[in-house]
Amino acid sequence: MKKEVGKSTTYELCRYVEPSPPPASRGTKSNGRARRQTVEQPTYKTLIERMERLALQGAIKAQTVANRVSVLRSFLKHNKLSEDDPVGHEMRTAFRVRLTAFADHLSALGKPSRTVTNSLAALRPWREVVVAIDTERA
Question: What is the pLDDT of residues 17-40, one digit of tens each?
Fold first, then answer.
């Protein structure tokens, strides 16, 4: 005897699956692992804006900021970077090496030694800003 299977009246065939919402316990409870947040890398434009804000607050003179921005742009040009590029290892781990190479470049252009040392001194605050941003993000 064969049993005849009839059509179901409560189910339909579907080509897609609708996801169910996550359980309420999943969104509020931490499983002990830290969630990784996507944080954008700061760009050199961000650094410049931050330095300009310091000038507006009166922490630094506007002329000092202009000089520092000028030296930063020269440093970026030497390293084949632009203001829209994210801040990379040239301002972090490789800063001393890149700073020395930039000083050699300025000397090769015939800049006086005082100009070279002033340029290097103007770049160091940029490194401090990068360290401050990295510390805030950590």
Answer: 455 555 555 555 555 565 555 567
How many residues are given for the chain?
138
Q: Taking every pair of C-alpha atoms in the chain, what is the biggest distance, in angstroms?
A: 106
Backbone angles phi, psi at 43, to 5 degrees: -100, 170
Query: Contact 98/90 with Cβ under 8 angstroms?
Result: yes
State pTM to two decimals. 0.70
Q: State the CB neighbour count (10 A cutoff) for residue 31.
A: 6
Nearest to 45 by CA among 86, 75, 91: 86
- Which token pair is 137? 């993000």
Alpha helices in 1-138 (DSSP H): 24-28, 44-57, 62-78, 95-108, 113-137
Positive or negative torsion for Cα 46, 52, 57, 58: positive
Closest CA to 44 of 109, 107, 127, 102: 127
Question: Rounded to whole angstroms, how far apart are CA atoms 69 and 74?
Answer: 9
